[in-house]
């Protein structure tokens, strides 16, 4: 009598940020239990900034087939940096406040549906490569910024309880306060340079995907013609000295579909590199994938095409 054996289960590391906006112990246990029905699962909790990167790097050496993150875009960002160039695919389980990268990949932004989708991949393993941006060497999967938005991110990250409770509304409240306090009376304080093109402004926002971020379910886009795997990045230089212009720009971003046309935004597209230099050696804030990344007088953006493998179907168009 011939014997048969089931195909071995794929090995999956789930990196959990227990402090993420939407993660608690009960949710962690339910997600892990569900995934164990189709995968050989090892779960590991992060306990400090940078720990997700370490856990993902260790998993590569142990022969893991995929890495999933249960947390926000910051947790995913750390794991992505460790997985660059390895071919080990990354899957984002949504546990943060916005979960932008999951939405850009066309994956569910709700944890039950996302877990179900990951279970489906056990039978239909779909991977593809996406580009990875860097800002002064620090990786970003979908967006980075220098100036106002990074100042807002710094303040929001300093109050995680308010971030969890108010979500995008807390970003909006801190944005208004920060603009009035730190940017309203300033002249253009930086220049963005790519090749022979140089543009002055207050803030530079770089997109490595079709949308810069989300306000709830509403995509916020500043640039057109960029996707996660197009091999180039785009940037928007903001000119915000006029309060009326700044307010109208915010309204357009929240109410229009696609990148708005306004004198407050100058776009730069089709780039593989960008240099942002602050006036007079002053220090400007930087954020990557929604995480504060320190103060810098100069930021060099670069792109690594097809550097990161993701567990997701390739989006068309």
What's the short version?
The chain is an alpha+beta fold and 317 residues long.
Helices and strands, with pairings:
Elements: E1 11-16, H1 25-35, E2 40-45, H2 51-61, E3 66-71, H3 73-83, E4 90-94, H4 100-104, H5 111-120, E5 127-135, E6 138-140, E7 143-146, H6 148-157, H7 160-166, H8 168-183, E8 190-194, E9 197-201, E10 203-207, E11 213-215, E12 218-220, E13 233-238, H9 243-255, E14 265-271, E15 273-278, E16 284-288, E17 291-296, E18 298-311
Parallel strand pairs: 1-2, 1-3, 3-4
Antiparallel strand pairs: 5-6, 5-18, 7-10, 7-16, 8-9, 8-15, 10-13, 11-12, 13-14, 15-18, 16-17
Helix pairs in contact: 2-3, 6-8, 7-8
Output the keywords.
317 residues; alpha+beta; Rossmann fold; Tumour Suppressor Smad4; 2 domains; 6-stranded antiparallel beta sheet; 9 helices; 18 strands; 33% strand; globular
Please, could you describe this protein's structure?
- With 317 residues, the chain is α+β, with helices and mostly antiparallel strands.
- The protein has a six-stranded antiparallel β-sheet with strand order 6-5-18-15-8-9, with helices on one face.
- It has two domains: 11-125, Probable inorganic polyphosphate/atp-NAD kinase, domain 1 (Rossmann fold, 3-Layer(aba) Sandwich), CATH 3.40.50; 138-304, Tumour Suppressor Smad4 (Sandwich).
- The longest helix has 16 residues, at 168-183.
- Helix 2 packs parallel to helix 3 and helix 7 packs across helix 8.
- 44% of the residues are buried.
- It has nine helices and 18 strands.
- It has helices at 25-35, 51-61, 73-83, 100-104, 111-120, 148-157, 160-166, 168-183, 243-255; strands at residues 11-16, 40-45, 66-71, 90-94, 127-135, 138-140, 143-146, 190-194, 197-201, 203-207, 213-215, 218-220, 233-238, 265-271, 273-278, 284-288, 291-296, 298-311.
- Helix 1 links the parallel strand 1 (11-16) and strand 2.
């Amino acid at each position: 009598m011939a014997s048969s054996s089931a195909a071995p289960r794929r090995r999956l590391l789930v990196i959990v940020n227990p402090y993420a906006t939407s993660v608690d112990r009960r949710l962690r246990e339910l997600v892990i239990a569900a995934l164990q029905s189709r995968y050989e699962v090892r779960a590991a909790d992060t306990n400090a900034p940078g720990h997700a990167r370490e856990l993902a790097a260790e998993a590569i050496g142990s022969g893991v087939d995929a890495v999933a993150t249960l947390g926000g875009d910051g947790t995913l960002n750390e794991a992505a940096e460790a997985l660059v160039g390895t071919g080990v695919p990354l899957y984002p389980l949504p546990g943060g406040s916005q979960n932008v990268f999951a939405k850009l990949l066309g994956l569910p932004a709700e944890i039950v549906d996302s877990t179900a989708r990951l279970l489906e991949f056990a039978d239909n393993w779909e991977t593809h490569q996406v580009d990875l941006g860097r800002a002064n060497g620090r990786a970003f999967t979908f967006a980075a910024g220098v100036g106002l938005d990074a100042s807002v991110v710094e303040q929001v990250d300093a109050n995680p309880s308010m971030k969890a409770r108010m979500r995008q509304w807390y970003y909006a409240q801190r944005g208004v306060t920060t603009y009035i306090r730190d940017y309203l009376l300033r002249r253009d304080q930086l220049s963005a340079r790519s090749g022979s093109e140089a543009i002055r402004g207050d803030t530079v926002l770089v997109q490595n995907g079709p949308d810069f971020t989300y306000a709830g379910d509403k995509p916020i886009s500043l640039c057109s013609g960029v996707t996660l795997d197009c091999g180039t990045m785009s940037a928007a230089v903001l000119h915000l000295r006029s309060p009326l212009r700044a307010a109208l720009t915010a309204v357009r971003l929240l109410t229009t579909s696609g990148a708005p046309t306004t004198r407050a935004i100058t776009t730069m597209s089709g780039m593989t590199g960008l240099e942002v230099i602050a006036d007079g050696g002053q220090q400007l804030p930087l954020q990557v994938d929604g995480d504060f990344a320190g103060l810098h007088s100069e930021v060099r953006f670069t792109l690594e095409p097809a550097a990161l493998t993701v567990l997701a179907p390739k989006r068309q168009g």
